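INFO  loader      accepted 1 record
INFO  loader      residues=557
INFO  predictor   begin
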Amino acid sequence: MDEPTLHTALDRIAARHGDVTVDFPADKVALSLTGLGARSRRIAAHLRDLGVGEGDRIGVLSTNEPDFLLILFALSRLGACVCPLPMHAKEGAGRLVGVLDDAGIKDVVVSTRLAAMLPFIEEALPGRRVLGAAGILAHGGRDEADEVSGADVPATNEIVLQYTSGSTSHPKGVRLTHANVLATLRAIRDGIRLTPADKNSSWLPLFHDMGLFGTLTGILTGVPCTIWRPSAFVKDPARWLRQFADGGYTISPMPNFAYDYLVEAVPADEAASYDLSRWRVAFNGAEPIAVDSLETFFGHFAPAGFDPRAMLTVYGLAEATLAVTFPPLGRGPRFDWVDRAALAERGAAVPVERTAPGARGVVAVGRPVLGMELRIADPDGDGGALGDRAVGEVQLRGPSVTAGYVDDAGTLDQPFTADGWLRTGDLGYLADGELHITGRGKEMLILRGDNYYPDDVESAVRTDEAVHRRRCVAFVHQERDHAEERGGGRETMVLVAETARPEAEHPALSDRLRTLVRRALGLDDLRVVLVAPDTLPRTTSGKLQRLAARSDFANGR
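INFO  predictor   done
INFO  writer      dumping tokens
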């Protein structure tokens, strides 16, 4: 993986492992690496004829299907850049237009699976060229004499404009070069000792960084890959797990909530019928990792032969292309039990016994991956590194770290310190050389002078059987009535939880959840709001959006 560009890396691996395939079960299609390389060369020639050239940014609306990879590698050969466009039903065309305007995108490719939407997309995007992938792929699949190799594309060219999930702010376009992407793929391969003997699988969306770069790592290492649609997992986790087990897959990336779904979907007395003994690397990342989720999953699937040492609790973000820290391979998760009050009030990770009152378990997410540097710094200070067990902002630098974002004016908004470190906005601390994430800086809750992590409030109730799929968010709401005269309204801690229980049970359930929070945090003043399942706002990758929920609450939604 030492080539300067994605497509040259593909061509090299295809020369050695050309028969290895990328399978798309929903489409009943298997792309060989040889075929992926050859077809992308011809598709690049057709896109060139359509006027696509070096430096162009092309939006791609696609499900998990072959079209996405073929277009990606074709654009790579032209020196152009792909911008994966997530479909978000609730926000509709408004968000899509915002992303296209932000990125200066004039051309949008719509995949074969979404072809029925072409007239609606064209209507929603006046002034832009909307291209059907089916026609592009058909024209680019015939003439082998008309190909683009892309041998002269610089590694400094943008290849992916990756928009952040928007869990704590408006989505931002992260500019990633070939060099950025290949650096993170190299780090992932090194961190899990990936070889062609492995078998990779993913149902994560290809427009999401964990789904895209996890898949590319497998492809550019010559590993057989299977790409399911997200709905294959979300609609029937047990069926997906059966296919995963029977297929002998060794690697799969998932967020924490997915492991909860599997426990919920597979009855305890059926777990032993799944053979999970070949699962070598179970990535867990992209959202906060819960101790109780891991321990429940381990116990539930022990009869299936799942080895807890396969669970890799990791940390990453789009601004670092993906991978930032991995724990030692084959060790299994490590939990650090600290005093909850000291963590929130003083920013100190004070070790305590697990059974101590106010103990909080924080999952270790490992050490920096190959090429990555990391420090914990005071976000309001001069950028100097803090000592062990002191909570501060996680800051990074390395070959996979972006040069910055694009903003509405098409210029860069660089979130860097004066001495060149990326400011992630995440809070954490180092202990025994490993990173521990405690939360997001902008999500810290301050109630009448006291600090609270939202996850502390949520973790007190999310395992209650009445909370639908552990979905709940906490935030501080300031009443606005007569705020001008008083210099600010009354602050209230609000907990919004999804539940399928009938309204007649809501008063008793609200009391129970308040009691759980009071016992955990000593917090007496708590307003509990119960909503129907699937009400809380989430990102396209499934993360709960606390700040959006707070806005909805404040505006009566």
